[in-house]
Amino acid sequence: MGSKAEKILFDNNSRVAPLGLLAMDNAKELGEKVNWYLTNWANENEYAVDTFLVEADCPRFSSGDGKGLIKQTVRGNDLFILCDVGNYNIKYNLFGQLNCMSPDDHFQDLKRLIQAASGKTHRINVIMPTLYGGRQHRRNYRESLDCAVALQELQAMGVSNILTFDAHDPRVQNAIPLMGFDNIIPSYQVLKAMFRNIDNFKPNKDHYMIVSPDEGAINRNMYYASILGVDLGMFYKRRDYSTVVNGRNPIVAHEYMGNDVAGKDIFVADDIISSGESMLDIAIELKKRKAGRIFCYATYPIFTNGLEQFNKAYADGIIDGVFGTNLTYRTPELLASPWFHEVDCAKYIAYYIASLNHDLSISNVIDPHSKIQALLKKYEIK
């Protein structure tokens, strides 16, 4: 979107209602970036405003009980609540012990703030990049359906729209068919970051190839392959379904299916890098097949087992770079790693908020096809 579109977004007469952005403590950094874009666009287009941020807090008693507190009026506002349920760096005292907040704690605080709004807002929209309970999205045995129930809770509390990024399984929106649910894939932002950070980057059929890490990630990788016009390969994860380790069936082997990868740069995209072991196993298998440089991407680079394995893999030439968004908490150690490159999605979120606040179509925001084509043309990629 250019300046003309941004001017339309801040036509004061076409807003649904006054805009409010409530960035919870778990998403302060991202919220401030989003607010910077929104306020700049508004001020550049003759709509003077200091900030759209709404001051709020979720204090806790020493017993662990909490409450939501909104410190200014939100009456009549089109309120957007930004929440990162994956931020484990937020801590609180419980009977004298320091505890890291879990996704459950963050989700409870989100509901507290919705309660604190007391039904006075014009509309409540939740931006939850990491979808709460998203990895527990389907039932196989006698087990919970956390994500579906959470979405129904938010609907019952009066939330009108939910925005998430790269949901583990977007079909979970079937639990709330009458509520707005948008699942955004930041493909354009990823490619833009790759052009900026990779030397001699040539994403064409002769030099580049997409490889899906498993069958579950095939759609997101298929999109990159289709829009770039390059070959697509895939790994099949052979699992031992007779045992469960850390809540999952362990992977026995990665079986590759696809064209020859020899000499080509490889891009492997997934929604989450958790322990990262699977991604590194795939990189090793690709190197055995004489692949060139290997670049990994995950919307949520959480690295639950730390960075040591990736530091070693980078030093040994197994991987050449890892890309991840700023949609969830990243440790200072990760941000300082020479192999990690951040994908900034703040402007993307700001466009979404501004469009929805003016009841404009968000098709152009969600579908990055034209932007990617312009990016490829800029760098003369054929």
List the helices and strands and how they pair.
Elements: H1 3-9, E1 19-23, H2 28-44, E2 56-57, E3 69-70, E4 78-82, E5 91-94, E6 97-100, H3 103-116, E7 123-127, H4 146-156, E8 159-165, E9 180-184, H5 187-197, E10 208-212, H6 218-228, E11 231-239, E12 251-257, E13 265-273, H7 277-288, E14 294-301, H8 308-315, E15 321-325, H9 332-336, E16 340-343, H10 346-357, H11 363-366, H12 369-378
Parallel strand pairs: 1-4, 4-7, 7-8, 8-9, 10-11, 10-13, 13-14, 14-15, 15-16
Antiparallel strand pairs: 2-3, 5-6, 11-12
Helix pairs in contact: 2-10, 5-12
Could you walk me through the main structural features you see in this protein, from its secondary elements to its overall organization?
With 382 residues, the chain is an alpha/beta fold. The chain folds into two domains: 198 residues, Rossmann fold, CATH 3.40.50; 158 residues, Rossmann fold. It contains twelve helices and 16 strands. The strands form four sheets. It has a seven-stranded mixed sheet with strand order 12-11-10-13-14-15-16, sandwiched between helices. It has a five-stranded parallel sheet with strand order 1-4-7-8-9. The longest helix is centred in the first third of the chain and has 17 residues. The two termini are 23 Å apart.
